[in-house]
Design goal:
With 210 residues, the protein is an alpha/beta fold. The protein has helices spanning 3-7, 26-40, 47-50, 56-63, 69-81, 91-101, 113-122, 147-156, 170-179, 192-195; strands at residues 13-16, 104-108, 132-134, 163-167, 182-186, 201-203. The chain folds into two domains: 3-25 and 87-209, Rossmann fold (3-Layer(aba) Sandwich), CATH 3.40.50; 26-81, no CATH class. The chain is built from ten helices and six strands.
Length: 210
């Protein structure tokens, strides 16, 4: 895949992750989950990075003692209510470009509906740039399982090969690749050279394809 394929664009649907792809929130989440790791798993120094791309349900079921789940959820809800949702450079303009070109767009995020209400409250116009929005409540298996991106392509009636996934996490690019989609890696969270073998192309942001 070349940047020209994204500029034209030469695909039927774009399937976008949210954090680290559309909004620059990953540093905030790294700080939050780093703090939670120190509280609940001090023996795992890289806890914040191990859970990236996973849904809250997946995190709590695998990593958190049921006794502490309500406390963690309360902490997360409070944190997300105060988050700042700044856009990744060029993201808004690129979504507008796809919309003008008649390309279908879907937001495919591991975030839950409560988190998305915070996003829509702060950035209400963003909702209009997506034809469909899928949150953690819409699929059973989390990334790197391809379920979410298979659902994204299916809702538009397209083959996965006709869709492009935009992701920043290793779990996310693995999900896109397993679904059979083309995968664009955004090096906003992980190094470009680490993402490159797993993606069709890696970009620092969207400015080069507007």
């Amino acid at each position: 895949m070349k940047t020209e394929d994204l500029k034209v664009p030469a695909f039927k649907a774009g399937l976008f992750d949210l954090d680290g792809v559309i909004v620059d929130t990953e540093p905030q989440y790294t700080e939050f989950w780093g703090a939670m790791g120190r509280i609940y798993h001090p023996e795992i120094p890289d806890f914040a990075y191990r859970i990236k791309g996973q849904t809250l349900t997946q995190i709590t079921e695998r990593w958190i003692d049921p006794e502490y789940v309500p406390e963690l959820v309360r902490r997360l809800d409070e944190f997300e209510s105060r988050m700042v949702f700044e856009f990744i450079p060029g993201a808004w303009d690129y979504l507008e470009k796809l919309k003008s070109a008649g390309v279908k767009t879907a937001l495919v995020t591991s975030s839950n509906a409560v988190k998305m209400e915070n996003v829509w409250r702060e950035r209400p116009a963003l909702r209009d740039l997506f034809d469909e929005v899928f949150t953690s409540e819409h699929f059973k298996a989390s990334k790197p399982d391809p379920d979410c991106y298979l659902l994204g392509s299916k809702v538009f009636g397209y083959k996965p090969a006709d869709c492009v996934v935009f992701e920043d996490s290793f779990a996310g690019v693995a999900a896109g690749r397993a679904a059979g989609c083309k995968v664009v890696g955004l090096s906003t969270t992980n190094p470009a050279d680490a993402l490159a073998p797993l993606c069709d192309i890696v970009l620092p942001d969207f400015r080069g394809i507007i």
